[in-house]
Design brief:
alpha+beta; single chain; 6 helices; four-stranded antiparallel sheet; Gyrase A, domain 2; 50% helix
């Protein structure tokens, strides 16, 4: 039975077996910085798949997305306001970071809503984006507050497949 590229990627990621990390004793196993490692993982998957359409591959688009992730994670400022069962995150940064924030928050909000019981809305604002998360109970509200903006952005095990889709020229959203 032949697996599709995304199915193979899911198994590959879930198993933790990364071809570029396979090594013999005495040889290095780390690919280096995390963005480089994410690209290396996708390149390995693409090269191992005989059905890769190389005309569609766009590793630069994946690299640009990883830069957006880094900008949001390391350079964005977040202010939050809490109102009963909703939290508003106002995420801002300089012009470069604001553009990354808009791309990341607007794309991730529907994913977050789809993988939780929360109502999630996002919109652009000056200097970045605003994301409102409405919880369904006090317990859920505690989780939203505990995770905060950055924890919420990680929810949904879609990131690896998302990266593969970007690298193969397909829209991940």
């Amino acid at each position: 039975m032949k697996l599709g590229l995304l199915s193979a990627a899911m198994i590959f990621v879930a198993s933790g077996a990364m071809a570029q990390h396979a090594h013999t004793s005495g040889s290095p196993s780390e690919t280096g910085q995390s963005q480089f490692a994410a690209i290396a993982e996708i390149v390995t998957l693409l090269r191992d798949d005989p059905n890769t359409d190389w005309a569609q591959v766009d590793i630069k688009a994946l690299r640009d997305h990883l830069v957006d992730m880094d900008n949001v994670t390391t350079r964005a400022s977040v202010k939050r306001s809490v109102d009963e069962t909703s939290v508003t995150f106002m995420v801002t940064g300089d012009d470069v970071v604001a553009a990354s924030i808009r791309r990341m928050v607007l794309a991730h909000s529907p994913m977050l809503q789809g993988t939780s019981d929360w109502t999630v809305a996002a919109e652009e604002m000056e200097g970045g984006a605003k994301m409102v998360v409405r919880a369904s109970s006090e317990g859920e509200m505690g989780q939203v507050l505990g995770l905060g903006f950055f924890g919420l952005m990680t929810i949904g095990a879609h990131h690896q497949q998302h990266h593969l889709m970007i690298a193969t020229g397909r829209s991940p959203h």
